[in-house]
Specification:
Layout (H helix, E strand, L loop, with lengths): L2 E6 L3 H8 L4 H10 L2 E5 L2 E6 L1 H13 L1 H4 L7 H12 L3 H9 L3 E2 L5 E2 L4 H12 L2 E5 L6 H14 L5 E6 L15 H19 L2 H9 L3 E5 L11 E5 L7 H8 L7 E6 L13 H9 L5 E5 L9 H14 L1
Parallel strand pairs: 6-10, 6-11, 7-8, 7-9, 9-10
Antiparallel strand pairs: 1-3, 2-3, 4-5
Helix pairs in contact: 2-3, 2-5, 3-5, 7-8, 8-9, 11-12
Length: about 325
Amino acid sequence: MVDGTTIQLPSRESAIALSGDREENLKVLARQTGATLVLRGQELLISGTANQVDLCGRLVRSLEDFWKHGKSITSVDILTARHALDTQRTDELQDLQRDVLARTRRGEEIRAKTFRQRQYIQAVRTHDLTFCIGPAGTGKTFLAAVLAVQSLLANQYERLILTRPAVEAGEKLGFLPGDLQQKVNPFLRPLYDALHEMIEPEKIANLMERGVIEVAPLAYMRGRTLNNAFVIVDEAQNTTPAQMKMVLTRLGFRSRMVVTGDITQTDLPPNQVSGLAVAQKILQHVEGIAFCHLSQADVVRHALVQKIVAAYEQYEQ
């Protein structure tokens, strides 16, 4: 027996927000619930079995905070809402949806999109040293950079230091044109990208000139003590155990460090163990250090990235 219900959306903007680009959100909702969804103007028609219609209706209403205000909805938002319904965490879902971390230069909201991302943010706020391990696209570096910029602009720290090992992903640095700084700049590009979301480009240049923001290869950290600084160590899976120990012991007074990486994507030589993997074994039970693990379910890039990560995980297992 086919059941059906209609949800009246308050505006054209809310209908666009709910349906998504090329009605991609409606397809995700259909896959998640088994229901059939048809959008006619501002009316959403849901049909299917009684259980399918009920689940789909609850799922759509759990996203009301977004579509009611015309805010864009992603497939990750839908999957997180479904997870919240399955695990009776709807109150927590509302907190997640309403907790705006920051706004970009263009006024777009930045917030955790999954429960694990929110746990990661809370860990960074409450620990002087946080490790975040997870696949590409889970927001490891971006969220850390957002928190770091916020702290810097609030004068909680004097400096923001972003660093990563300059390890080639199958290509040789020596063949790149230019001096050392020009050679390593491509490796640091993802860190610059995160900064540009939050700060005007000319202001970044000024802060870097004054040494308030420093973006440098990991080798430049040797022999330093990083006091009153927010430090982000990116692509940490490409550190050797010695490099990892070196950078962790740079942590000075009134400083905070976030170490991010994906243990499944190391660019080290085949016989070289990852410093991130070793650090996890040695430090995971040390009080005061937080370890956060993100998975393919936390991927917030293009929907295909989640499928790519899952396919590779399945192949490697």
